[in-house]
């Protein structure tokens, strides 16, 4: 595994544009892999949000690309992933005055070196022309949400975010996330923003797993 990782890193060094999912040369996420992504079925936004758009099922090439970005420090994968988000929003726009990224706690940020949601939001801002506004902060380290059940996740993130600057936040905010799970984190972000004066909070995420029993129905 270590040798494979080293080999991958060497290849990345000499051949920077190799598809992270299938290895094809030419781009970080090739057209073949992009074409194979399955769209996430439309559904109502989680409680606390005025709207939500999720691009794709969290599987296959997009799952691999997100993992490469988050867990092997491959920051530049955020560019093709941000482009995918932009294309998704162009097809199904959500009203917004500004973008915000789900903040990482300072400890996690120091560990990873960058905030993947902010990287995605940066690219999306560049593509769609909306400003990426700072000010939302995580005031509590909520640990690894992935290891918790739905109810525990909600309790774990409640009150974990604050609007940390003295200027009022924009009236309509679109929060950018990489992988949506229960929506508890986004709802907690929305709470903090509404408390500071935001009227409408929507979210866009790259991918989400289907809930157990949820069917793949396209409308
Ligand atoms: Zn590929």
Question: How would you sum up this structure, described in words?
Answer:
Helices cover 38% and strands 16% of the residues. The longest helix has 14 residues, at 78-91. The protein has helices at residues 2-14, 31-35, 60-71, 78-91, 106-112, 116-128, 150-157, 184-195; strands at 51-57, 98-101, 136-138, 161-163, 172-180, 200-208. Helix 4 (78-91) crosses helix 6 (116-128). The protein has 219 residues and is an alpha/beta fold. Strand 5 (172-180), helix 8 (184-195) and strand 6 (200-208) form a beta-alpha-beta unit. The N and C termini lie far apart (42 Å). The strands form 2 sheets. It has a 4-stranded parallel beta sheet with strand order 1-6-5-2. It has a two-stranded antiparallel sheet with strand order 3-4. The chain has a single domain (2-208), classed as Rossmann fold. Bound molecules: zinc ion. Zinc ion (ZN) binds at residues 19, 21-22, 24, 30, 32-33.
């Amino acid at each position: 595994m270590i040798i494979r990782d080293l080999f991958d890193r060497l290849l990345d060094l000499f051949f920077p544009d190799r598809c992270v999912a299938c290895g094809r040369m030419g781009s970080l996420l090739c057209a073949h892999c992009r074409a194979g992504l399955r769209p996430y079925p439309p559904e109502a936004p989680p409680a606390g949000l005025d709207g939500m758009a999720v691009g794709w099922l969290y599987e296959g090439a997009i799952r691999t690309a997100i993992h490469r970005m988050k867990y092997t420090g491959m920051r530049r994968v955020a560019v093709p992933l941000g482009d995918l988000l932009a294309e998704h929003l162009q097809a199904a726009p959500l009203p917004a005055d500004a973008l915000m990224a789900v903040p990482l706690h300072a400890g996690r940020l120091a560990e990873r070196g960058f905030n993947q949601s902010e990287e995605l939001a940066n690219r999306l801002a560049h593509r769609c022309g909306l400003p990426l506004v700072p000010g939302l902060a995580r005031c509590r380290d909520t640990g690894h949400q992935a290891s918790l059940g739905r109810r525990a996740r909600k309790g774990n993130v409640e009150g974990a975010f604050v609007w940390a600057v003295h200027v009022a936040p924009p009236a309509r905010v679109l929060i950018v996330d990489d992988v949506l799970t229960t929506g508890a984190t986004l709802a907690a972000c929305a709470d903090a923003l509404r408390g500071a004066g935001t009227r409408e909070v929507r979210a866009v995420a790259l991918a989400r797993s289907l809930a157990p029993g949820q069917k793949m129905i396209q409308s």
